[in-house]
Amino acid sequence: MQQIAQKQLDNINRVLGGQTSNNDTFTQGKLGLIYYYYHLYKVTDSATLKQQTNQLLQQVFSGIYSANPTLVGPSLSTGGAGFGYTVNLMHREGFLQLEAENELDALDDYLFKTARGFVEEDNIDYLHGALGVVQYFSGRQQGAAKQYADVLIEKICKRAVQEEAGCWFRNNLIRVDGKQVINFSLSHGLCGILLTLLKVHAGSAHQDLIANTVKEGIRFILKHKIDVDFSRNEYSFFPLMIARDAHEIITPDRMGWCCGDLNEVLLFYRAAKLFGDDGLLRLANLIGMQSMMRKDGPSTQATTAAFCHGAAGLAQSCRILYRETGFPVYRDGYEHWLQRTILLLEEELPKGVYAGKEEALLDGLTGIALTLLSYISDKALNWSSVLLL
Description:
By secondary structure, this protein is mainly α. The protein has helices spanning 2-17, 30-44, 47-64, 80-92, 105-120, 130-140, 145-158, 190-200, 207-223, 261-275, 278-291, 297-300, 311-325, 328-351, 366-376; strands spanning 161-163, 166-168, 175-176, 179-183, 241-243, 249-250.
């Protein structure tokens, strides 16, 4: 299947090579494409690809100082954290030479000040709020970045809403009919917040605070565990959202990178490892194994190849779960969803399904390309770490 995957990757590369987007952002534009090309260069060692990557990066640098910049705000998805994360990664790994070690210091100051305001406004969203900045700072570890990360981590943990069932976080970007909801997802909710806190735990000055917040957040998730019944087409163990001040649970049977039971499974595995929690490990195994039985459209709603809530995201999630556990069932799930990605691409590319959003990381072609690249490459690529996998 690797040859078929390579063929589809070649097809995607031809499409991406013809793009001239004016969008510079990480999830929708040039930064995401640069991120992909950088990892493709690591695999191919192509001098032409290196030159192309540097040219695109120069365009992004120029765009920052243009009259109409497309990088706006501090977020990972569309702002400064996405820029900083990409540049810092390539600098740290020796691909990009900065003129001075403190060249990103002004960006760091800006991101810290704006992210601090985001926290106070309950904009903690990983993709669009303060947590993306925390992830960037955790990888930077130069200048004041570590201090900035610790201040933000403390403020975020203290914004947790404490209840008898555990803790959760407000997200003022996600509302239903104008009402506050509790979101459980990786992309916009509790799983993403807790996975980020676990990721920065080792290097933080607030390890006890992080540990307590994660444990209380997981306790809240477990309090809302749902009984499943495959015979009645009820597949999800956990809700997507709970409406506040109403007895309403929103539980679509979607399973993907962005949301669904594999989010909780990954969170439980990582927390169980850090805290030595055998009970949580057993629960992760149970839900993970049952989730691997869900392989069709109705039980997963994964009907496209796209990364966010399609087959590519499920494939990469299974790959990471296999790396975390070594269980063959996740390797089999990875192979299944890779094959589905390839089959769906064979239908979608000729139809122009991704026209106009080719460079989009989550719902376009770059996320799919990165997933295929990991499959065909013998080199260990850690690109999905930026997406908490």
